[in-house]
Write a structure and sequence with these properties.
The chain has six helices and two strands. It is mainly α. It has a two-stranded antiparallel sheet with strand order 1-2. A hairpin with a 4-residue loop joins strand 1 and strand 2. The longest helix has 21 residues. It is elongated, with a radius of gyration of 36 Å. It starts with a strand and ends in a 5-residue tail after the last helix.
Length: 135
């Protein structure tokens, strides 16, 4: 495989084996004098320390984003039009679907907590003793 290496003076076409051999021998095609002249002075006491910020950024960007840890992956059958509607809303459609299901669950739990209308106890006793049905 041939690689083209561009130096400050000209372009040179070499094989990857030659690049590895030159690098091992210490004869790279990089202009190290230019690099050293333009690199920042890291010993300057007034220079801000970005190492912590850089590590945090690299750690944040590596791999899949961390979730809340309380979600399970499920296989769920949903009508095509419902799925198309959520997907049409763009990025984050699964989160919006989760929020819609959570809102429904909260209203269903609220309805289940409401006391049901019951017949007065005295009327129930009378109907049972006499055998008559309430109506």
């Amino acid at each position: 495989m041939r690689s083209t290496v561009t130096t400050s003076k000209k372009s040179v076409s070499v094989t990857s084996k030659k690049l590895v051999a030159r690098s091992a021998a210490g004869n790279s095609l990089s202009d190290w004098a230019w690099v050293r002249a333009h690199e920042p002075d890291l010993t300057d006491p007034d220079a801000p320390d970005f190492s912590g910020l850089m590590r945090a950024e690299l750690k944040r960007l590596r791999g899949r984003p961390t979730g809340s840890g309380c979600k399970d992956a499920v296989s769920l059958r949903v009508d095509r039009d419902v799925l198309a509607g959520f997907r049409a809303t763009g990025r984050g459609w699964q989160t919006r679907m989760n929020e819609a299901l959570r809102a429904w669950l909260e209203t269903a739990q609220t309805r289940a907590k409401r006391p049901r209308a019951r017949k007065p106890k005295a009327a129930n006793r009378i109907n049972r003793k006499s055998g008559a049905s309430a109506g």
